[in-house]
Design goal:
With 187 residues, this protein is α+β, with helices and mostly antiparallel strands. It is 41% helix and 28% strand. The protein is built from seven helices and seven strands; from the N terminus they run H-E-H-E-E-H-E-H-H-E-H-H-E-E.
Length: 187
Amino acid sequence: MKNKWLSFFSGKVQMEVKGKGIERLLNECTRNGIAIFAVKKKQDCVLLMIQLQDVHAFRRVIRKHECKASFTKRKGLPFLLLKSKLNLGFTAGFVMFFIILFLLSNMIWDIDIKGAKPETEHQMVKHLEEIGVKKGRLQFLMMTPEKIQKSLTNGIDNITWVGVELNGTALHMKVVEKNEPTKEKYV
């Protein structure tokens, strides 16, 4: 069997075949297109592996011979799914763990603003809350960093430029404020 992943997903069965004419049985199986692999000869029997979908065809072939077959091992995803039905609580906990891990790793946990005065930073936080960017929000439910950047530069007057970068679960913002000269009063 060349591709072990495909055989894992489709399932495979190890069988123990006893009786007379095992070689003829194996030859007829290969003529009928039944994939047989991992064949091992023991004292009075042969251990072999077949794919799960070939079990019914193997049973039709073995009826014509003086051999008896019994299942010894079952491997693959179909059998794991059958086992998981018995351990339903464990399986549900396992699935819920990965769902929660996915959701928590896609939330914004930190908003870092650098280069702004406290008044400007307060205005930015208010504006971010208005457009729906806040801690605990899922990343795929909010705007892209480019749209956040555009909204901040258009919405707040005393900002010249804002760089928004999403790094993991943190949103980093670098701010350049406008430096307007003080206006002189004419007498």
